[in-house]
Amino acid sequence: MTPAARVSGAIDLLAALADQPRRPADAIAHDFFRARRYIGGGDRRAVSDLAWGAVREHARLVWWLRRSGVEPTPRLMVLAHLVLIERRAPGAIFSGERYAPAALTAAETAVAEALRGQDLLHPAMPLAARLNLPEWALPGLEERFGDALPREAEALSGTAPLDLRVNLLKGTRDTALAALAGEGILAEPAPFSPWGLRIAGRQPISSAKAYQSGLIEVQDEGSQLIAAVTGAKPGMRVADLCAGAGGKTLALAMTMANKGRITACDVSAPRLSGAARRFARAGVDNAETHLLEHGDRWAKRRAQQFDRVLVDAPCTGTGTWRRNPDARHRMGAEDLRELAAKQHEILAIGAELVKPGGLLVYATCSLLPEEDERQVDNFLAAHPAFSVLPLASAWEQAGLPGAPPGEGPYLVMTPARHGTDGFFAAVMRRG
Ligand SMILES: C[S@@+](CC[C@H](N)C(=O)[O-])C[C@H]1O[C@@H](n2cnc3c(N)ncnc32)[C@H](O)[C@@H]1O
After folding, report:
1. How do the residues of the chain divide into helix, strand and coil, expressed in percent and rounded to 5?
2. Rounded-to-integer distance, Cα 168 and Cα 282, Å
3. Residue 134 in domain
4. Does the pTM of the predicted model rise above 0.95?
5. What number does the ligand 1 atom closest to the CA of 243 have?
6. Rounded to an integer, what distance in angstroms lies between the CA atom of residue 207 and that of residue 315?
7. Does residue 248's CB lie within 6 angstroms of at least one atom of ligand 1?
8. Which residue(s) pair with 427 in the sheet?
């Protein structure tokens, strides 16, 4: 593809995202490229990089376009990205020639002129756009980070490393490192997770033998630590109530050395089917799946039967913006309200399942206190049988090495402080 054709591709990809505003961008991109198999690997990366660049800088580019008197469209977003960020002259790209985007109109040329030579950050930009954050999440993130917000916002706008979890059911961290090195993939131990590896840059991990054999799983280190502090041990009865495609179930099965029983529940049948396939690849044979349906009595019939219950709740995903930059603008204040209500409900169901002396772990991949500490406060106020097991104690009781990341009562992982996605987890014990 010519450079101009790549720009055309990026405009088309952004238009596909705009047509399906509630759908995750990676799923849309997957379909987009599948329908255009003629776009080869290098071109695909170039098209994606340009489109994701515009998605990542959404708030700032929109501010600039509106200041120039136009409403953002996919074409204008790409134009603004090229001029403001890549500092390219758009005239030669928007040429109207074969495969290139249509020639700039007079109004678009005026916008490009207005943006030319400008710094991306402007003194008149409001805080949300300056920090590249959506307005709806700003109050919560200010509350979470205070003075550290600019640093964390910058980290949330960055790219994420590739984190792997070594599957101790299949080998050790050293055997995994050696297996990866044998295929030219250089990894290093992750700082906190005893089973974590980190890889900088892009690596074709899914074709690696270590991955195909189930020796490694792709999992952010923060996510690994949520499973770790759950402290699931061999022989226990464990419920993973929002198991999705089973990322944390797999890690729980590993800390249980495949002994005892885990039930992985979810309301999504396709996700649970994905989980079952992953169990097989990872050599996990102590996990079953259960699809939660409307009016399901599964939880009622198992009151107080579980040693560990993990509620990895559906959330706004503010902690995952490095990997899902589109989620900033796909979610809004109304989603936050709805999800907070749902989290409250699921947590109450999870609580019923916990045995006396057992642990309930509430986790999100959001950094908003409304989905995190405030959920825990509300829960504890309504469930006096439960109390917080502080992170340091949960860490020690789970037999994890070294000190936990942070001194507060909860596990709070952030991109700037820990190099992970943003995660929250509270461990609570039923007395
Ligand atoms: C954060 S994701 C789980 C990720 C998963 N635990 C992992 O580690 O890969 C949240 C999950 O909650 C599920 N969910 C939504 N509403 C639910 C409900 N009422 N009960 C149980 N699960 C629910 C969603 O389908 C989604 O898979």
Report:
1. 45, 15, 40
2. 10
3. no
4. no
5. 6
6. 31
7. yes
8. 361
Quick one: tokens of 347? 């947590």
What are 211-220's pLDDT values in tens digits? Answer: 999 999 999 9
Do 172 and 225 share a domain, yes or no?
no
The residues, any chain, with a CB within 8 Å of residue 242's CB and separated by 6 or more, are: 265, 266, 310, 311, 312, 313, 314, 346
Q: How far is CA 11 from CA 16, 38, 48, 295, in A?
A: 9, 17, 10, 45
What pLDDT is recorded for position 203? 80
Is the reported ipTM for this assembly greater than 0.90?
yes
Same domain, yes or no: 342 and 390: yes
- Of 267, 323, 346, 352, the one to substitute when testing ligand 1's pocket (max ligand atoms within 8 A of C-beta) is 267
Tell me the average pLDDT across 398-422. Answer: 96
Same domain, 198 and 95: no
Q: Which amino acid residue places its CA nearest to atom 26 of ligand 1? A: 244
Probe residue for ligand 1, chosen from 252, 262, 266 as the CB with the greatest number of ligand atoms within 8 Å? 266
Please state, for a pLDDT cut of 90, what percent of the chain lies above it: 93
Judged by average pLDDT, the poorest of 96-110, 144-158, 198-212 is 198-212
Q: Is the CB of 346 under 6 A from ligand 1?
A: yes
Q: Are residues 204 and 279 in the same domain?
A: no
Instruction: Give the distance (Å) from ligand 1 centre to CA of residue 399.
Output: 27
> Does ligand 1 come within 6 angstroms of the Cβ of 244?
yes
315 catalytically annotated: no
Report yes or no: 336 and 364 within 8 Å, Cβ to Cβ: no
Binding site residues for S-adenosyl-L-methionine, as ranges?
Answer: 266, 312
Domain count across the chain: 3
- State the closest ligand 1 atom to the C-alpha of 349, by its place in the atom list counted from 1: 20
Backbone angles phi, psi at 163, to 5 degrees: -100, 140
> What's the rounded Cα separation, in Å, for the pair 176 and 179?
5
> Is residue 180 domain-shared with residue 233, that is, in the same domain?
no
Residue 294 to residues 91, 267, 303, Cα–Cα distance (Å): 56, 9, 18
> Long-range contacts made by residues 126-129, C-beta under 8 angstroms, separation at least 24?
126/63, 128/59, 129/59, 129/60, 129/62, 129/63
Distance (Å, whole) CA 246 – CA 29: 23
Ligand 1 centre and the CA of 311: distance in Å? Answer: 8
Give the contacts of 35 (CB within 8 A, at least 6 positions apart).
none
pLDDT at 200 over 80: no
* pLDDT above 80 for 131: yes
